[in-house]
Structures are given as C-alpha cells and as structure tokens.
Specification:
This is 3-keto-alpha-glucoside-1,2-lyase/3-keto-2-hydroxy-glucal hydratase domain-containing protein. The protein is an alpha+beta fold and 283 residues long. Helix content is 14%, strand content 35%. A hairpin with a 2-residue loop joins strand 14 and strand 15.
Length: 283
C-alpha cells in the first residue's frame, strides 16, 4: 500500500513538474530577443534627414554593409546640419531594447564639435511622418551614444531631451542633457547599450550590463506656461546620424507590453532579464 501511494504521489509530482517546466519554458521563449535589424537591408525602417522628405536617403547616409547598419558621409561635401534618423516601422510602449554600436573613421566636414563620436537611440519618439522637412530631431527621449577621444573622460548612454523633459528624484528637470555614470569607451570598440522603457513610468539605461542612469515620467515639453507636459506612454524608436560615421551591428528588443498591467509579474521578468550581464564582444 505504501509503495503504491509513493508511486502515485511521484506521478503527481512529475505531472506538476512537467507543468512547471512547460510554463518556465514558455516564459523563457516569450523573453527571446526580436531582431529589429535583419542584417541584410533596411526594408523595415524609415529614413528622415533634415532638409529632405521622408524616406529620401540623402547621400546614401544609411546603408547596410558587412551585416551592419552603417551611417556614412562619403557623398557629403559639408554636413550642413543635415541631422538624420532611421526609424523602425512600428512604435513600442514597454520594452527592453539592446543596441551594439561602434564609432569609426573621421567626422564629416562641417559637423559640429559636440557631435564628434556622437549618435543616439531615440525612444518614445514622434512619428517620422509628422516631422517637418527642416526639423532637426524628433520629439523624443534620446539615449545619447558617445565615444571617447583617446584621453579624456566621456560617458555614454547619457540623456538628452529634444522637445521633452522628465523627472528624477521627484523633480522635473528641463536641462537638455545630463550625463550618466558610465565609463568612457575609447577607440573603435563595440559597446552595448540597453534601455528599459516602461510606458510613462520609468526609463533605465545600461552599458555592457551595468546600470548607469534612471529617471521617471518622460513627457513632452509643457505648453502655455505649465510645469508638466503630456506624459509619453509609447513612441517610435530611431537611430541617429549626427556627422560621425557609426556602425550598428545589432538592434534587438524584448516587448514587455503584455506584462505592463501585471506589476509583480513584470518585476520578476525584469529581474530575470537583468540578472544576465550582456557585454558587447569585440571582433
């Protein structure tokens, strides 16, 4: 009798175990990265360059070579403040995005001094179709990507705010850019930046697996003298061209939207994701 009971109990545990294993596998499967860049072409992206119409790729600024998105200025005679952005085809709301980039070569003639080894990931941005021909940057939260000059300290994954503002430590901050606490990445090395975006509540920046900045309540610049602006709950994702050649070899995302209204589940999912330290490997 005892033997039969133990066998039955073992069978139940096995069934439960299989169920838990299946659930765990399902959760793991749902957390897989989706590649926004297919490594071949830009068919799922839109281009907006200042002074040019939507999807006019002036000077072949955005191109794909060697499996990388490349920002190049070989056909420019002068940069002339022709800031550009490469937009993914659809907006997102709650997600973790990972981008691996490196700066290469020399800045194009006419590029501003501050744009040396400078690019960015724009999140919660406006629809490129709503940008004016001469608009320089989409209204967005910019995760600024910077490379070092070989000697001075220069953090990356900073925050800039074209047409936007945010809260940090309970205070609304209106300054255009603030630095993260990341280390400096000199030379042409690959660097991985991840950005956790949770609707209008929280944004966190990571560099090679280390948190370097967090802030809350991303919002548009206020109107009519108000202190607070319209909260940003979703928006476009884009990559910048700001006059220095840059390569992007990976642009990937984990959509967290289905967990957005389940705070406890979301917390566990984020903890699981960030328990792994993802560092860009060098060629």
């Amino acid at each position: 009798m005892k033997t039969k009971y133990n066998k039955a109990l073992f069978a139940i545990f096995c069934i439960i175990g299989l169920g838990l294993f299946s659930t765990a596998c399902s959760a793991q499967k749902n957390l897989k990265w989706k590649q926004l860049f297919n490594g071949k072409d830009l068919t799922e992206w839109q281009i907006k360059i200042r002074h040019h119409k939507l999807n006019e790729n002036f000077g072949n600024t955005f191109q794909v070579n060697d499996g990388n998105i490349q920002v190049r200025y070989d056909q420019y005679t002068n940069f002339d403040e022709q800031f550009g952005h490469l937009f993914y085809k659809e907006p997102f709301s709650s997600y973790l995005i990972g981008v691996e980039y490196r700066f290469v070569g020399d800045q194009v003639k006419g590029g501003p001094g501050w744009a040396y080894r400078n690019s960015g990931i724009m999140v919660h941005g406006q629809d490129p179709a709503t940008m004016t021909v001469d608009q320089d940057f989409p209204n967005s939260i910019e995760v600024q990507l910077l490379g070092g000059n070989g000697k001075d300290e220069r953090s990356t994954a900073n925050l800039c705010t074209p047409g936007t503002q945010f809260e940090q430590d309970g205070k609304i901050l209106k300054q255009h850019c603030i630095n993260s606490n990341s280390k400096t990445y000199h030379g042409d090395q690959w660097t991985r930046v991840e950005v956790l975006v949770l609707k209008d509540s929280l944004i966190v920046h990571y560099v090679n697996g280390e948190e370097v900045m967090r802030y809350t309540k991303p919002q548009l610049d206020p109107k009519k003298g108000s202190e607070e602006g319209e909260l940003l709950k979703y928006g476009s994702i884009s990559l910048q061209s700001e006059s220095h050649p840059v390569d992007f070899r990976k642009v990937e995302i984990i959509d967290l939207e289905k967990y957005a209204e389940k705070p406890k589940k979301l917390e566990k999912v984020i903890a699981k994701l960030m328990a792994q330290k993802r560092v860009a490997l060098q060629d």
